[in-house]
Amino acid sequence: MVRVGDSKAFEAVKNIYGPDVAVQSLADNNHIGKNFIMKFDGARTGTTKDGETLEGKGRLTEPLAKSLASSMAKAIRDVARESGTAEELSHAFWRIFYHKSQRHQ
Fold first, then answer.
1. Is residue 34 in a domain?
2. Which of 27, 63, 64, 81 has the most crowded Cβ, counting Cβ within 10 A?
3. How many domains does the chain divide into?
4. 1 located within any domain
């Protein structure tokens, strides 16, 4: 497995199967998902400008934060697999946010 940032390793194996078979570098989606969880955790436990927290019943709970993070990591994988654009990824994120906010009211 070649991880993100291992450009020397990728260069060494990209033609290992010959010129007819392309080896692709994939983003480490677990790393992306973990980053989302950390960001949502920080937002969840932080405070807003008016001093209120975002966590609690009817707000950004830990299960909801993890669900959002995993859904967004999946959206990144899906859009990347389809060679999508940043605009398509943005639309996917907004669909996730809208769907999750409707379910957790």
1. yes
2. 64
3. 1
4. no
Q: Which of helix, strand or coil describes residue 24? A: coil
| Residue of 91, 12, 13 lying closest to 82 (CA atoms) | 91
**What single-letter DSSP state applies at residue 19?**
T
Placement of tokens 């940043």 in the chain: 86
Q: Which domain holds residue 35?
A: 7-103
Instruction: Kindly report whether the global pTM for this prediction surpasses the value 0.70.
Output: no
Around 41, how many Cα atoms within 13 Å sit in the side-chain half-sphere?
7
Residue with tokens 């033609």: 15
pLDDT digits 0-9 by tens, 8-36 = 777 777 778 888 887 766 656 566 767 77
Assess if residue 62 is contained within a domain: yes
Q: Are 29 and 73 in contact (CB under 8 A)?
A: yes
